[in-house]
Design goal:
Layout (H helix, E strand, L loop, with lengths): L1 E9 L6 H9 L6 E3 L10 E4 L17 H13 L12 E6 L17 H11 L7 E3 L5 H14 L5 E8 L3 H9 L20 E2 L1 E9 L17 E10 L12 H10 L15 E4 L6 H13 L11 H4 L6 H15 L1 E2 L21 E2 L4 E8 L3 E9 L15 E14 L1 H12 L11 H13 L9 E7 L4 H10 E2 L2 E2 L3 H4 L6 H10 L5 E5 L5 H14 L4 E10 L1 E14 L2 E3 L1
Parallel strand pairs: 3-7, 4-5, 4-6, 10-13, 16-19, 16-20
Antiparallel strand pairs: 1-8, 2-3, 6-8, 9-14, 11-12, 13-14, 15-21, 17-18, 20-21, 21-22
C-alpha cells in the first residue's frame, strides 16, 4: 500500500498548499498579462509566475539556480515533520520536469542537464541515492508518481519524494507560441470560446511511503482526516502524432481503463462509487476535445470534472504533481472549486463541468495527463477503507532475458552516419529525414528489434540518456537568437526527449507505455530493476530498453529487447 504522507505547492497563487487552497476557495487566479517575452504576433500572453519571495530564506545559495531553490523550498515545507527521512538510504527522490534549467543553455550549459538539478536538490538534503528524473513532456508529473509507486512496491525503497517543477523562460514561451498553442486572453478549459493555453510555473512536492501493514502507516495527525493511497496508475501511447492528440482519445482511454482495472473495449459501471476527475484540461481545441471523447468512451463522463489550469496555467512537468496534491485536499475536504474560465460547454460529448464550487462525497479521484509524443498517464487516489489493502507479490523475483540487442558507438558526423545506416537498412520511412538525431537513432534501433505490428499494447519503451534533447535544444536556441528571432515549431517539438518514444510508437503502432529517464550515467542494473517492475505489474510481454545519446559529433546507443522468463522459457 502506497500512502500519501506529505505535500507542498509553490505557484503563482502562494508559497504553500494552504495558500493555494485558499486562493481556489476564493476564486482567485494568478494569470496575468505579461509582455516581457518575445513571441510572434502582437506578443500578448498570459502567464502565472512564482514570486521569488516564496523561496525559503535559508536556501538562497550562490551555486543554486532559481528553479532549484524553489524545489528545495517545496521539499523543506512538505517535509517539516518527516525531515529525518530525507537523508535516509531507504528514501528515493523522483523528479518530474519538461525543460528544467533550460534558461542556462546559452550561458552555462553545465547547469542545464536535468539530472544536475535533481542531484543538487537531493544532495542538499544529504540523500545518498542517485535521484530518478522523469521527462515525458506534459505527462511527466503523473508519470513520476507512477514510477515512484512502482519502486516502492518492488521493495527497492521505503519512501519516495516526488518533486515536480518547471519555470517560464523565453525558450518555452516562444516554442509554445510557434505551435500556435498560446491564448492571447485568459484560458478557458473545455469552454466553447477556448482557443489556447496559458503557461505557468510551479514547484510541488508529494511524499509517498510504503506501508506493509496498518501498524506500519505513518501517523498523520493534522494532515488528512482519512489516510489516502495511490491505488493504481498506468501509461499508454496514442501511436498517432508527436504533437497532436488522437481524435478517438485512444491512449488516454487505454491509460484510464488500465488504471481502473477494466478490460479494453468496456465502460466503467456506476459500482465504481462516488468520485471526481481532474483532467489535463489545457484549453487547446484538440486536447480538451480528445479528453472528452476518452472519458465518454470510459463511461466516466457523468463524474464531476474539475480542470485547474484556468487558475495558474499549464505548469508543464509540475502540473501532474501540484494538481494531484490539490485533488487530495479536495477529496479530504469534500468539495471541488468551480472551473475558472468556463461558462459554456465546448466539447462533445460534454463533460460534467461547473463554473461554481461543488460539494462532493467522493472516496476516490482520477488524475490524468496527456502530452506531446502521444503520451498519456492516469492515477487513481483513494481514501483508505475499513480493510487494509493487499500489497500483492510485486516484490517477488522476476527473471528476465535479453532477446535481441542493437548497439552504436560513433564519433564524427552523426547526421550523415545515421543517414548511411538508414540507407543501408533498406528502411522506407520518409518521416525519418525530418527527425532530430535522438529520434533517428532510436527509430533505427527499434526497427532492428521490433516488428511493425498492428495495435500492440504489451510492448513498453524505456529510454534513458544524460543529455535529454540537447541537440534539438541547441538548434532551437539558435532560432530565437537576439538578432535572428524566428522560432521554429518543427524544431521545438523535438526539444522534448520523449518524442523518440512517440515516433517509435507511431512507426510500430505501439499503444503501450513509454517513459524517458535522464541520468548522469547509464546505470543498467537500476534500469533493469525498473524493467522488472513493469513485468511484475503485468500487461507487458516485451520491454525495449534503450540508452540513446545522439548529438552532433557523437552517438552512443545501446538497445535491448527484453522478455520475462518462466521455467527457463520466454513468457508471453
Amino acid at each position: 500500500m502506497i500512502q500519501i504522507v506529505a505535500d507542498n505547492i509553490i505557484s503563482g497563487l502562494g508559497r504553500d498548499t494552504g495558500e493555494n487552497l485558499r486562493a481556489l476557495r476564493e476564486g482567485r487566479i494568478s494569470l496575468k498579462e505579461n509582455a516581457g517575452f518575445r513571441v510572434p504576433g502582437d506578443g500578448k500572453v498570459f502567464l502565472s509566475v512564482m514570486d521569488d519571495s516564496f523561496i525559503e530564506p535559508s536556501v538562497h545559495e550562490e551555486d543554486m539556480t532559481r528553479l532549484e531553490m524553489f524545489m528545495v523550498s517545496s521539499v523543506k515545507r512538505a517535509c517539516g515533520r518527516i525531515s529525518h527521512l530525507l537523508g535516509d538510504s531507504s528514501t528515493i527522490f523522483v523528479f518530474s520536469t519538461a525543460k528544467g534549467n533550460v534558461r542556462y543553455l546559452a550561458e552555462d550549459e553545465r547547469k542545464a542537464p536535468l539530472w544536475h538539478s535533481a542531484k543538487v536538490v537531493s544532495g542538499y538534503f544529504g540523500n545518498p541515492n542517485d535521484p530518478v528524473t522523469v521527462s515525458t513532456a506534459c505527462t511527466s508529473g503523473v508519470t513520476a508518481i507512477i514510477v515512484a509507486k512502482r519502486l516502492l512496491e518492488a521493495g527497492l525503497y521505503k519512501t519516495a519524494v516526488v518533486v515536480g517543477a518547471d519555470e517560464i523562460t523565453e525558450f518555452v514561451v516562444s516554442g509554445f507560441s510557434s505551435l500556435m498553442a498560446l491564448s492571447d486572453e485568459l484560458c478557458r478549459p473545455f469552454d466553447i470560446m477556448r482557443h489556447g493555453l496559458n503557461l505557468g510555473e510551479a514547484a510541488g512536492c508529494l511524499v509517498l511511503r510504503r506501508a506493509d501493514s496498518k501498524e506500519d502507516m505513518l501517523n498523520q495527525d493534522g494532515y488528512f482526516k482519512t489516510p489516502q493511497l495511490v491505488a493504481s496508475g498506468a501509461m499508454a501511447s496514442d501511436a498517432f502524432h508527436i504533437s497532436g492528440p488522437s481524435k478517438t482519445g485512444e491512449g488516454l482511454y487505454r491509460a484510464v481503463m488500465k488504471t481502473l482495472s477494466l478490460p479494453y473495449g468496456t465502460k466503467a459501471e456506476t459500482c465504481l462509487g462516488e468520485a471526481f476527475i481532474n483532467p489535463h484540461g489545457t484549453a487547446t481545441l484538440y486536447n480538451d476535445q480528445m479528453e472528452s471523447v476518452a472519458f465518454s468512451r470510459s463511461g466516466l463522463d457523468d463524474l464531476p470534472m474539475i480542470p485547474l489550469k484556468g487558475y495558474f496555467g499549464h505548469t508543464l512537468g509540475a502540473s501532474g504533481v501540484i494538481e494531484t496534491i490539490l485533488c487530495c485536499h479536495f477529496l479530504d475536504e469534500g468539495w471541488i472549486p468551480g472551473a475558472a474560465g468556463y461558462s459554456e460547454p465546448g466539447c462533445f460529448p460534454s463533460p460534467n463541468i461547473s463554473s461554481e464550487p461543488q460539494a462532493v462525497s467522493a472516496s476516490w479521484f482520477l488524475k490524468t495527463n496527456s502530452g506531446f509524443g502521444g503520451s498519456n498517464a492516469a492515477i487513481k487516489v483513494e481514501k483508505l477503507g475499513d480493510s487494509f489493502p493487499e500489497n500483492g507479490s510485486r516484490s517477488g523475483k522476476i527473471d528476465i532475458r535479453t532477446i535481441k540487442s542493437f548497439n552504436l558507438e560513433y564519433t564524427g558526423d552523426v547526421k550523415e552516419y545515421l543517414a548511411s545506416l538508414y540507407r543501408a537498412s533498406g528502411l522506407s520511412y520518409p518521416k525519418f529525414h525530418k527527425m532530430d538525431l535522438l529520434c533517428k537513432a532510436g527509430v533505427l534501433a527499434a526497427d532492428s528489434l521490433l516488428e511493425v505490428t498492428e495495435g500492440n499494447s504489451d510492448t513498453a519503451l524505456v529510454f534513458v540518456n544524460s543529455v535529454s534533447s540537447l541537440a534539438a535544444d541547441r538548434e532551437y536556441l539558435s532560432s530565437i537568437a537576439e538578432d535572428d528571432f524566428f522560432p521554429s515549431p518543427s524544431v521545438f517539438v523535438y526539444t522534448l526527449p520523449n518524442i523518440v518514444t512517440g515516433e517509435i510508437s507511431i512507426r510500430h503502432k505501439l499503444f503501450g507505455e513509454c517513459v524517458f529517464f535522464v541520468e548522469e550515467e547509464f546505470n543498467r542494473e537500476r534500469a533493469l530493476d525498473y524493467v522488472r517492475c513493469l513485468f511484475r505489474e503485468g500487461g507487458v510481454s516485451r520491454v525495449l530498453l534503450c540508452w540513446d545519446e545522439s548529438l552532433d559529433g557523437r552517438c552512443s546507443l545501446r538497445a535491448d529487447l527484453i522478455g520475462m522468463e518462466k521455467n527457463g522459457k520466454l513468457h508471453d
